[in-house]
Design brief:
CATH topology of one domain: T-fold
Strand order of the largest sheet: 1-2-6-7-10-15-16-17
Number of strands: 17
Order of helices and strands: HEEHHEHHHEEHEEEEEEEEEEHEEH
Distance between the termini: 31 Å
Bound molecules: adenosine-5'-diphosphate, magnesium ion
CATH architecture of one domain: Orthogonal Bundle
């Protein structure tokens, strides 16, 4: 906030700006999270138009992919696709196809059919499925049952009872769409966020924006601050949606597809990539893979980096963040397990 104020002041001293040049901001609760946008515009009408364009894109993705809305295209697919191929919108097809690519790349750690088990959890009410329900549900988690045909743009589920939820990738996709809309309008400096998925366009004139990664065990603290420009960053954490069960175990919303239970290898995984669809899917993937396999995957990908906080609160960085920086791998973070 202070940086932004300094920037506005600096500009007003140096450049003869049109009267309406300013930051435009808006936040709304949607897609089960808080969506926020902040953009710089020299023109009031354009600034307002740009804010509206962001929320229009978010609304559209929500309309197609919200698993809780029985009217969404995804809900229709979940009801129908086990009966035979269903033709879907280009947007839904694109996100599903990308999901399957990440499933293959991660050996199944990322799998949108996790929802076959995920649908039996209610984190707000503290409800987890029984052993029997979970066993049956886990047998239906397997992305290879989701058969897609790119030419016909169809999707078919090879078994009954399989459920897809795009919660690990759709917010990133929505952020990308919103950013593309801003760029079409000529906006050059903006941040769009949907929960833990953000995309940063441009900078603050003379410096990059500073984005914070939340401390996984101290609600209002940041554990790392990173200067960023023209990039996407997503964080998956075990502290967003969770409850502590009768055995004292943390039950949260990122599931290991092999067990249908919360993945406990790390507390948080943040991924940097050019696009938010990729940083979103990869943050969930890295969270499930854990430090060693997660960093192996991230280091094998061009233009992608990660910061992982392990189950003891220790920070780990991908190679791209260590090269030429003062960051230290496996440095002790002031986190409590
Ligand atoms: P958030 O939704 O809090 O931003 P993530 O991007 O990590 O966090 O996404 C977590 C969501 O991803 C879960 O709420 C669920 O919808 C989905 N998900 C959980 N486990 C998996 C998994 N193994 N593969 C793909 N998606 C998953
Ligand atoms: Mg994600």
């Amino acid at each position: 906030m202070r940086l932004l104020c300094c920037f506005s002041l600096l500009l007003s001293l140096l450049v003869p700006l049109p009267a309406a040049a300013e930051w435009y901001r808006e936040e709304r609760d949607m897609m089960g999270t808080r969506v926020s946008v902040e953009l710089w515009s020299q023109d009031r009408v354009l600034g307002k138009q740009a804010l509206a364009a962001v929320f229009a894109e978010m609304d559209e993705v929500n309309r197609l992919m919200n698993p809780w809305d029985p009217e969404s295209e995804l809900s229709g697919l979940n009801r129908e696709a086990h009966r035979g191929p269903v033709r879907v919108s280009p947007a839904l097809f694109r996100v599903l196809a990308r999901s399957i690519e990440y499933s293959k790349l991660s050996g199944g750690a990322f799998d949108v059919s996790f929802a076959s088990a995920g649908q039996h959890y209610d984190y707000r009410k503290g409800v987890a499925p029984s052993k029997e329900v979970l066993e049956q549900a886990v047998s239906r988690i397997d992305y290879t049952y989701i058969q897609i045909n790119a030419e016909l743009r169809t999707v078919r589920y090879a078994i009954e009872g399989l459920q897809v939820d795009l919660g690990g990738i759709a917010k990133g996709y929505a952020v990308d769409r919103a950013m593309a809309a801003l760029q079409r309008l000529g906006i050059e400096s903006a941040v769009v966020s949907a929960g833990g998925d953000s995309r940063i366009l441009g900078n603050l004139g003379d410096r990059p924006r500073t984005i914070g990664i939340r401390h996984p065990r101290k609600r209002d603290d940041f554990i790392v601050m990173i200067p960023l420009e023209d990039t996407a960053i997503s964080t998956s954490g075990d502290y967003e949606r969770f409850f502590i069960d009768a055995d004292g175990q943390r039950v949260h919303h990122i599931l290991d597809p092999t067990t249908g239970k919360s993945s406990g290898k790390v507390q948080s995984a943040s991924v940097l990539a050019e696009r938010a669809i990729d940083s979103d899917a990869l943050s969930t993937t890295t969270f499930v893979l854990g430090v060693k396999k997660g960093l192996e995957l991230i280091n094998s990908l061009h233009g992608v980096d990660a910061i992982i906080i392990d189950d003891r609160g220790v920070l780990h960085y991908s190679d791209g963040l260590l090269l030429g920086s003062d960051l230290e791998s496996e440095s002790e973070a002031p986190a409590t397990p």
